[in-house]
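Archive entry. Fields below.
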Amino acid sequence: MSTIDNSAATAAVALERPKKGMSIERAQGRIGVLFATPYTLFLIAFGILPALYAIYLAFTKKGAFVGFDNFLKVFKDYRFWPAVEHVGIFIVVWLVLLVVLVVTLAILVHSIGLRWFSGTMRFVYYIPGALAGASSVMLWLFVLDPTVSPVSWLLQALGIESFVGAVDASRLPIVLAVIAFWTGAGGWIVIMYGALNNISKDVIEAARVDGAGPVRIAWSIQIPLMRKWIAYMVIMSFAGGTQLFVEPRVLAQASRGVVGQDYSLNQLAFLYAFKQNDFNGSAAISLVLLAVAVTLSIYFVFKGGLFERA
Amino acid sequence: MNLLRTTVALSAILVAGAALAQDGAITVWADATRQPAVEAFIAAHPEVPVNLVLDDGSSGASGTFQTKISLADQANEGWPDVVFSTQNNDAAWAARENNGAQAFAQVLNEGFLDQAFLDGFTPGALDPVTVDGKVYGLRNDLAPVLFWYNKTLLDSFGYAAPTTWEDYQALGDKLAADHPGYFLGAIGDAFPGPYVYYWSGEAPIFQVEGESFKSDTSAPNSAKVSALIDHMVANKTLTLDSLFGANFVATADKLVAIPGAAWYAGALFQNPGGVNAKAGDWVAAPPLKWADGAAVTGNVGGGVWYASSHTQNPEAVKTFLKFVTSDTKVAGTGGLPAYQAAADAWLDAQAASGFYAGDFKAAIQAAASSVWNGWGYPNFSPETAWAKIVTPGLAAGKTMTDLAADWQQEMKNEAQVVGYTVE
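PREDICTED_STRUCTURE:
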């Protein structure tokens, strides 16, 4: 999974809006430009220009315009639809896990009265996020192999007798989702915690006076007010999830090919480019991913009211 | 994002390689098993600076070699000077132009290396890397499949060593009945299935003629091999472990016999992390055959050294290639050297050490000269399809007979994707 830059979001939640005044706003504007410029330059160099190049590649072959030929070729590839299915199931499992557990855990941690305990928990949740994707897979390779796993009793209870069984096609989306959750959830819990801090104490207090219990408060007040942040999490995680690459790639090597080198769409794009020397087909796959991610992001942006002024 | 990161990391390696190439050094890509050979070269030839980049040697058909060269082709820089690959089929792409970039592999005959040196290789050794009379690589070792058995164990059980596949299966029945737990092989890796069993069993499942690919898992010999595997998996004399996995090593003292490549000598038997055999226990015997079949066998890799057509230091590359394939102490890297003189020296040394009982030299020579030529070297490997379809299928309790059709279909699909016409 791509590591998502959570720090900006956290900062945005944590900062309270200062009182408005012309000069401050202008100074802030100038600082804002300063902060955004390097990012924009990198975005152009490593995001927008390559994307434009991919569009050019996807509709051409040897420099000549070929319409949708590359797309048709990819759609007819026997590996394409299984890869779509793999990534699709993974994303559904992962997003459901993420939304349900992250929100629940964030509300639980937020309701802990003891300051040190709440802080410790947030820190503990965040630790796995410090590991890069590939290294966390390395760790999971040991966890998933019943011959060396510290939780081999649990694997055996689930009917998993060997590493090959653990990465069996039917279990793999869940395994990948658990790995992704373990690596990525901590950062989101911290962000959701910040979102919960943003909810005015008066509102909660009023609800409590009216006799609402913690569950009612969570369901009727906290979650609706966190809607934007949940939508934000879903969009970022969806975009990251469609790009599933490192985890199955490392698993492919570790399982000696039982997890196919063509498991995910990004892996297939990689094979197209570097095994078949078909950069045009590879670009077509990446454009399909881009189109799907943009469409669903737009849906969630409007559904989640992400750009509405509070 | 991740693809980008991977690409950046790979590019960094390539750039580092390119930078070093300028000061007369050669960049060598090889796997950890080849590292001692490269270090021996550095010690013997201090005048040639070597920059060794370790990778997986493309084992299990991981495609590392081709992937990294494609990146270099795209970047138009960063090629290594010498590459080692555990696969025998890389010439299928490395001998061709690639999106306008010249073919990566240097033609080694026709003047690059002197013909007298090339003639020193065992006859047939360079066939997998020869395309239209041009030699594109040098074999590191020959890897014919022979039959290894533990004489001490067999004698103590009172069984004779099998010489045919039928006897091998019958031995499995006896062991399963009288000595459960003792076993005759493991097929958890992707290579023993296709190369040790199907290739040795003369099964026409991986054949190339020109640009067309053929696979027939229902041919008589293919069906016989599938039935053999199913029978022995069912009575547990063939395990589903990897030869290099913890389970296999833990039970290795119960391994009675195993058909396998010449390089099992160093990689499996004389490896403290493998079988860790006692001197005098194991015998290398001529390969198994069908009772009514020809005396032929399979081949498991054997590795190839390639020179880059982009190299700036051809003289250093020549020195390196000659050393690493023909030096009597280094060549073969633990297996049977492909270079005849080095092979003779290695066989004599093995015989003199007395580690293996029986006529080691005769068995290996018999195997090396009888590799079945009905097996192709296209631009893909049967291992990826095996790992994807058969390994998880067997682990889930299906039989080889059930899986054969799917395996064949996956190989045909792969063939089509890389441009072969499929019959």
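CURATOR_NOTE: The beta strands of chain A are 60-61, 64-65.
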